[in-house]
Amino acid sequence: MSEIEEKEANTSEPENQSEAPTPEPKMQSVSTLEEKKLSSTEYYRNPFLHIHEDEVSLPDGSESKRIVVTHIGAVNVIALTEEKELLLVRQYRYPLGVETIETPAGKLEPDEEPIITAKRELEEETGYTCESLELLGKYASAPGFTNETVHQFLASSVTSLTTTVENDEGEFTELLTATKDQAHAMIASGEIFDLKTVYAIQYLTLAGLW
């Protein structure tokens, strides 16, 4: 073997050599992005939300304004019947000006545990109850302007109530059920476009529960 060939052989990489690990993305420290409240002006308040405008200091030292809706929070219930049909409710949503199809849900009551709210909303809106509720987690509904978080619950052993539970005053809903294929088709067609309901359907699918 010539001297050149020997050098090439010694410097060539092994065929099975593993690739170098991908470096972790560099994350900017959260503290450098913090916005600090300087003052606040409240415009509206009721038992479950209030609206205020805050003057804030930005990371670069400049100042700006933020409109904030402080919300008490809400629950969403994912409930499958024994026939593997998802419980849904149709209702008119005034801010949107249309009827929507959603999973049973509702806002928290002051000093009430989310799991209590979840069972009550399931019974009031659907006429069904459950043996247990598992907290899957929670998500921020619209963090650009509100601190509202929605607690996601999965209902187990869902059965029909033997007595009627009245809905909240001023709330009118219609019970619907949907199979997996029907639910996916309603998302594809835009008939279901409510975030928490899309979340519920995708969760059941990805978790292999449907």
Give a brief outline of the structure:
The protein contains four helices and twelve strands; from the N terminus they run αβββββββαβββββαα. With 210 residues, the chain is of the alpha+beta class.
Kindly describe this structure:
By secondary structure, the chain is α+β, with helices and mostly antiparallel strands. The chain has helices spanning 3-11, 114-126, 180-189, 195-206; strands spanning 36-45, 49-57, 63-71, 74-78, 86-93, 98-102, 105-107, 128-129, 132-140, 149-156, 159-160, 174-178. It has a 4-stranded mixed beta sheet with strand order 7-4-10-9, with helices on both faces. A hairpin with a 4-residue loop joins β5 and β6 (98-102).
